[in-house]
Specification:
Length: about 290
């Protein structure tokens, strides 16, 4: 007799799974995949990012560009049915802000009402915390840049192609802290391009240069100073929000080149510690 296994009649009549059993298995797999996609935030360790980056100290201070959280953040919406491609020119829509300076807390949040489907939200944050988790509704919020020392640390995040409706922006910290949260809605943005940031002391605030390689790009600047920032915008910029010594502003450019935002500290005290950041965002056609 050969060494091969002999199969009896019962082997050829093994029971096959019923259709209902197969359907139940498929449902379980689908549910597990959906659960895997419900990632609602991206923890960003500021301290680790600063330590991993080379920070040059000069007369005006240091700079840190293109901060990253390590893993590539996803800008895809959770529900593909809401995937709407931006169209038309870049346009500012609305903004909101809040702060917890008087009552430090472990989180801070604000809500934008009637956000339009397919738009982009840009989050500007001042904090002394070294770790934060930022969510916009149920969508991951992409870190763009973090710059500055101590209480003058500023961060920019963005979420692309958001769903429509009232959207809550929430930031969780590793411990109770005073923070300022500014949120801005734009149409016509397809994604972030580049960023830069600087910090120092005195009355003259400067973000450092970013390079624009094509037309139709948004430049978004955010600055903070101990003594406050003058409400006079940088040349060709428009002020969007001012609160607690912080200022956000923007402009749309159509020509390639090097661009920066320059602001002035408020008051006659000779200025103070300041931080300023600038990010470029691509528009349709880039």
């Amino acid at each position: 007799m050969s060494g091969s296994k002999q199969h009896g009649p019962s082997d050829s009549r093994r029971r096959r799974p019923s259709r209902s059993a197969l359907a139940a298995f498929a449902c379980a797999v689908a549910c597990s995949l959906v659960a895997c996609n419900l990632v609602v935030g991206d923890a960003f360790d500021v301290k680790a990012a600063n330590e991993a980056s080379s920070m040059q100290e000069g007369e005006a201070g240091g700079s840190l560009s293109e901060a990253s959280s390590g893993d590539e953040p996803s800008d895809e919406p959770i529900d593909a049915a809401h995937d709407v491609q931006p169209s038309g020119r870049i346009t500012f829509v609305q903004a909101a802000s809040t702060n917890t300076f008087n009552t430090p807390a472990i989180s801070i949040s604000t809500t934008l009402s009637a956000v339009k489907q397919g738009h982009t939200l840009i989050v500007a944050l001042q904090t002394s915390s070294t770790k934060m988790t930022v969510t916009i509704g149920q969508q991951k919020c992409s870190p763009i840049i973090v710059a500055g020392p101590g209480n003058t640390k500023l961060a920019l995040y963005s979420a692309l192609n958001v769903v429509d409706g009232d959207i809550t922006i929430n930031v969780e910290f590793d411990s109770a802290t005073g923070a300022l949260l500014m949120v801005h809605e734009y149409s016509g943005i397809t994604g972030p391009a580049t960023s830069n940031g600087k910090w120092g002391t005195g009355t003259a605030l400067d973000t450092g240069d970013v390079e624009v390689t094509g037309g139709n790009q948004l430049l978004f600047a955010y600055a903070r100073c101990n003594t406050g920032v003058s409400t006079t915008p940088s040349p060709d910029f428009t002020v969007r929000q001012t609160e607690q010594g912080n200022l956000s502003e923007d402009r749309v450019v159509s020509s390639p080149g090097m661009y920066a935002a320059t602001l002035t500290a408020a008051g006659d005290t000779g200025g103070g510690e300041w931080t300023a950041v600038l990010a470029a965002f691509n528009g349709v056609g880039q």
